[in-house]
Design a protein that fits this description.
The protein contains four helices and three strands, in the order H-E-E-E-H-H-H. The protein has about 120 residues and is α+β, with helices and mostly antiparallel strands.
Length: about 120
């Protein structure tokens, strides 16, 4: 809940070098993910948009975890999260994301938690 109430990176001004925008037409969540990259390493991350608390908390966790990591590592974390939310992966890759796994009980909300990570996976 803390990440939804005081989200890390929300509307934060950064020296953006890459961005991607994703929209979930089923619930109306809209996320714009912005990254400052130095080669393959994320220097800073921010997001904007209108979304539910699950999506906002997930984007906040992404912005907290991304700096200092390579895009390759972050994409592996995205894959782990997707598998974990579907109940197919339980070994923790990222302890900080474990609270998102509570969404598994609500299959219609899984996409809410994944939307910011899908924006990351498709960043240009």
């Amino acid at each position: 809940m803390q990440h939804a109430q005081v989200p890390i990176g929300f509307r934060k001004a950064i020296r953006e070098t890459h961005r991607n925008e994703q929209f979930n037409p089923l619930c109306g969540d809209h996320v714009l993910l912005m990254l400052e990259m130095d080669g393959e390493i994320v220097v800073d991350a921010a997001f904007d948009g209108e979304s539910c608390v699950i999506c906002k908390a997930s984007a906040s966790l992404l912005c907290e975890q991304a700096p200092g990591q390579s895009m390759g590592e972050l994409k592996k974390t995205h894959l782990w999260l997707e598998l974990a939310l579907q109940g197919n992966e339980i070994s923790p890759r990222c302890e900080a994301l474990l609270p998102l796994l509570g969404v598994r009980r609500y299959p219609s909300r899984i996409q809410c938690a994944l939307l910011p990570w899908e924006a990351l996976a498709k960043v240009d």
